[in-house]
Design brief:
Structural class: alpha/beta
Number of helices: 10
Helix content: 25-40%
Shape: globular
Radius of gyration: 18 Å
Amino acid sequence: MTTDTGSLLDSVERTALLTAALRAAETRRPDRLYEDPFAEVLAGAVGPGLLAELRATTFPVDAARTLPSTPDYNAIRTRFFDDLLSEAARTPEGRQVVIAPAGMDTRPFRLDWPAGVRVFEIDRPPVVALKEAVLRDIGATPHVDRTTVAVDLRDDWEDELAAAGYDPAAPSTWLLEGLLYYLPEDDVHHVLERVRGVTAPGSVIAADLVNAAALTLPNMRGLLDLFAGWGCPWLFGSDEPESLFARHGVDAVAHQPGEPGADFGRWPDPVPPRDVADVRRVFFVRGVRK
């Protein structure tokens, strides 16, 4: 029996299914930056419709594109963090990896992992239940010791993560992908401080976020309205991601898509210098817990 992805949508963020649809589309490209053979089934019947809405907004047929190319951004982001986790898994800091939120991500199933690594996936119970049902239906098998923790990151999750086998005294690698810009500012600081509380010095913390202008610029309105209409508004941005993470004990470096190491030949727009004001930006942040 095949699970109906759409039947569980009331409790699952549209962005999780959109991301799966984006990864399925990338997988079909001959010049793909990565391959996710599970993305199409995880996107279900709903994800492609969301992607069609996004494409219609981002690439209007009767006007020039003014919004960032989400398909290219998603491809670069996925590859950037794929490489980061693959590299970290071969270091002491990567023996335990936490992906939070996990959404419809399938890195435990599609990446090559060395022996002895444990991956913990955190997400809201409905998201975990949906993904587990779909992966079970298709008989997917992870390539790593994988544990899911079904809890909302805004709630108390530390004890549940520890009960699942996570050791806060040992170094770890954390990926906070597709999370921070959906949270109010107070929740962003709350999550980062709680991550700090369960990570040992030397742990790797990675995330993506937008700058403040991306939330207010008129030429971003179409994209912002689309996500808000799906019930997933963008709420937080930072012009100084390094300072944001330093406040929570992380010595971080931020990369913009299109810069060396965060391009992969796919970013289609100019990369504005950091001192240029009133432009939209996205950051990939990688840091080390002090």
